[in-house]
Design goal:
This protein has four helices and five strands. The N and C termini lie close together (10 Å). The relative contact order is 0.27. The chain has helices at 18-29, 45-52, 97-106, 134-150; strands at residues 3-8, 37-41, 57-64, 73-77, 114-121. The protein has a five-stranded mixed sheet with strand order 2-1-3-5-4, with helices on one face. It is α/β, with parallel strands linked by helices. The protein is globular. Helices cover 31% and strands 21% of the residues.
Length: 151
């Protein structure tokens, strides 16, 4: 099954860079024989959808703000998430990833039916910093293991 793992976020905005950190760890730990593509992006909506063309399975990793404790990890199917999802799955100048995938499919693009989102609860996603807060940093290895196990 052609699979891509994508870390979403911005590596210079504190905890928002956690998706990239996890994706980089996955890249280092995944068996090269598995032929899994790994990428780090700062995109949402239509632009993100374009990167999914031709894949059968996608694992997205991103920070999210919630009432959950920072560093908490959730795993959801994209189809289970509200269509107004926050951060990089949706762009205020674009559309949600769910709508972008529907549009792409209606135009004949070959897009994955299996999109999983690994979210890491974060508090500091607008601070200019290349460092993660301690709870989010502590979640990187656990999230990496979750992604590796999904492969």
């Amino acid at each position: 099954m052609k699979t891509i793992v994508i870390g979403l976020g911005n590596p210079i905005l504190g905890d928002d860079g956690v998706g990239w950190r996890v994706a980089e760890e996955v890249r280092h730990q995944v068996d090269p024989c598995m032929q899994i593509d790994v990428d780090c992006l700062s995109l949402g909506g239509l632009s993100l959808m374009e990167h999914l063309i031709g894949y059968e399975r996608v694992i997205l990793i991103d920070a999210f703000i919630s009432n959950q404790e920072a560093g908490s990890i959730t795993v959801s199917k994209l189809s289970e998430l509200p269509n107004y999802s926050a951060f990089h799955i949706t762009s205020v100048h674009d559309t949600s990833l769910q709508n972008a995938i529907k549009l792409g499919k209606s135009l004949g693009a070959i897009l994955p039916a299996d999109v999983t989102v690994v979210g890491i609860a974060a508090k500091y996603v607008y601070d200019f910093s290349e460092e993660l807060s301690q709870p989010v940093s502590d979640a990187v290895q656990k999230a990496t293991k979750i992604v590796i196990n999904m492969l």
